[in-house]
Amino acid sequence: MQNTVLILSQVYVPDPAAVGQCMHEAAAQLAARGNRVVVLTSRRGYADPSECYPSRATLDGVDVRRLPLSSFGKSSILARLIGGMLFVMQCIAVGMFTRRLSTILVSTSPPMCPLAALAIAFVRRVSVSYWAMDLNPDQLVVMGKIAANSPPVRAFESLNRATLRRSQNVIALDSYMASRLNAKVDISEKMAVMPPWSHLNANQSPIAHEDNPFRKKNGFGNRVVIMYSGNISPSHPVTTILDAASKLQDCPQLLFVFIGSGLGRAAIEKAVERDQLQNVLVLPYQPFDQIHFSLSAADVHLVSMGDEMVGIVHPCKVYGAMAVGRPILFLGPRESHVGEILSQADVGWHVAHGDVDAAVARLREISTSSTAERGTKGLNAQELVRDQFDPDQLKGEFCDVVEQGLRRAA
User: Fold this and answer.
1) Cβ-count burial of 221 within 10 angstroms (0-12 exposed, 13-18 middle, 19+ buried)?
2) Residue 174: strand, helix, or coil
3) Half-sphere exposure of 283 toward its Cβ, with a 13 Å CA cutoff?
4) Which of 68, 192, 261, 273 is the most exposed, fewest CB within 10 Å of its CB?
5) What phi, psi does 327 have (nearest 5°)?
């Protein structure tokens, strides 16, 4: 009998958030393997709640069902919390009556989503695979949004421990995240560590600037573009680069481009207005079918992660940047997953948070480097993606883990 995999994810394609893209590609791969795959997701966009998607659709063999009143955008933590809880309640109601249910795949979108998986699994007696995309309440505690010993944190940690114990498989994005999860509950025997994959083809030759419509449309000209593309979150602070941009207004060949949305976008726009930054451009998320052009329009991609966020979040944007053959400028702690990538191959540069002078010096160096120098680092990055982060291989390994959970539960 055909297995039915129920996937719970508040974000899903065509929403541009990386979590939804990864979840869709995993779902499509599971469907291609002969499983019946049902996805419960939000009907409204996560980054832009004014965006409304069809309530029912079949995408790449996946049955996508969109739930109403389950996303109010990312304007505040309260809006995200209310939308998340409503989504969880609807998932439980629908999941209880999903026909021929065999297993559940759940991620941390929203953070309380595993609650729905546990409730459905308890009643329906099915297995759970838990894909840890980020860790909460760890993130909120580190950001100072809530006290570590507060009742909500203790309740959330109880949910985390229950999820880890009940899941047949747990997938962490890097070794640092795996260590944090194991500190909550020892799940070494059922832990899989694998990074998310790039949604772009690393086998294509990098797009030359003169052939790039996105670069022409936005008037980048011959300037050296330092691009940040993705979720603009306080977990990925860019203050050091903005301060450096302020000091580099005498360097007209540099342009800083921020593409995306999130709680950190307002701070960037405020800095641009306050310091009258003529060398900073802020743009919205780009349609997924244009991502290859927008990412390729950069000369260097900025990848940032807060010093205390190691093992809590994972900067997925690094893989797309490398897949299109562009080097990276990493703003964050050297002892981290991206720090390890930089130590493996000559794919970019590193700057520590708070060291504005070092950032200015590094950016001046980048601005005077030749196209060939930057191109060599970009090709090294592309080769590293093909060697260690091949999307087809990672998706296959991921689906193996989920199907292993099916066999283990049986």
Assistant:
1) exposed
2) coil
3) 21
4) 273
5) -75, 165
Q: What is the dihedral of CA 76, 77, 81, 87, to 10 degrees?
A: 50
> Is the pLDDT at 133 greater than 80, yes or no?
yes
The arrangement of strands across the sheet holding 280-283 comes to 280-283, 254-259, 224-229, 300-304, 328-331, 348-351
Q: What is the DSSP string of 346-402?
A: --EEEE-TT-HHHHHHHHHHHHHS-HHHHHHHHHHHHHHHHHH--HHHHHHHHHHHH
Omega prior to 114 cis, within 30 of 0:
no
pLDDT digits (tens, 9 = 90+) for 187-220: 999 999 999 998 888 888 899 999 999 999 999 9
More confident residue, 45 or 314: 314
Q: Are 383 and 270 in contact (CB under 8 A)?
A: no
d(CA 108, CA 368): 42
Two structure tokens written together for 315: 């900067």
Answer whether residue 281 shows pLDDT above 90. yes
280 three-class SS = strand
Query: What is the C-alpha to C-alpha distance for residues 110 and 130, in angstroms, rounded to an integer?
Result: 13
Instruction: Give the C-alpha separation, 72 to 67, whole Å.
Output: 13
Reported as a pLDDT band with limits 50, 70 and 90, residue 75 is: low
Parallel, antiparallel or unpaired: strands 224-229 and 254-259: parallel
C-alpha dihedral (329, 333, 337, 342), degrees to nearest 10? 40
Cα→Cα distances 210→21, 213, 234, 302, 321, Å: 29, 8, 34, 22, 19
Length of the chain as a residue count: 410
**Model-level pTM?**
0.93
CA atoms within 13 A on the CB side of 67: 26
Mean pLDDT of 122-138: 96
* DSSP H stretches of helix in 185-304: 213-217, 239-247, 265-274, 291-296
One-letter amino acid for residue 159 of the chain: L
Helix 265-274 vs helix 239-247: angle between axes, to the nearest 10 degrees?
20
Q: Residue 13 is encoded by which pair of tokens?
A: 């394609």
